[in-house]
Sequence to fold (240 residues):
Amino acid sequence: MRGEVGRLIFAYLAISFTSGTFGFSLPYYIPHVLGLPGWVMGIIITISGLTGVVLSWPFGYLSDRYGRRRIYALGGIFSSMAMVVVAYAGRFEELILAAVISGFSGAMLGSSYNALLADKAAGESRTRAFSLSFFVGTLGMAAGGFILRALYPLEMLTGSSLEAHRLFYLMMAGFTLVSPLLAMSVSPGIKKEGQLVFMFPKRSAKYLVPYLISSALIAFGAGMIVPLMTYWFSLKFLID
Fold:
């Protein structure tokens, strides 16, 4: 993909990469590096997820009204901010703040990216664009998990696991800003005038409801299992 569609997909790759790194590292970082109880990690993940779900609808309206590109860029900036807060967090309350910021980020990104990509990819190229976007996003998250091995040389450099994680999160926060910069390089998407409505469109309800139910079930299962995998491996196999 070239042009604006290509830049958007690269923007999605960048933020998927750092999100994967961030998400896979937290279940180890919170209990083993910060020394907080394991249940704290579950609370942080829950708050982030619920915040994103609750705010996704109003941010969807705002992205239509004020520009999807702007909302996406703000989501990338908020994602970077969450990583910075976690890097310097040492208390439960500070992690709660990071979780809320992360939830805002997820709502902004999730409610604007696909619509913005649909604006830029017209006709037959739209199917290819969405297929490539999904593949690139999944690949980016997986690669983000593998890059965690960079923590070992950082620990040798800093002499501390805590300082290594802080430096790593700050590096990821900086790299995350590549995503909003790329998004702002494309032309503005379509804006729609209208009022905020908290109802399904009646004509699309029979298609939206099954899609939303299946997506919710998948997200529910993934939300329980994926973030806890790192912590589970650590407890099960005593892997640090």
Remarks:
- Confidence is low (pLDDT under 50) at residues 193-198.
- Residues 13 and 219 are 20 Å apart (CA to CA).
- Residues 200-240 form one domain.
- The chain has two domains: 3-189, 200-240.
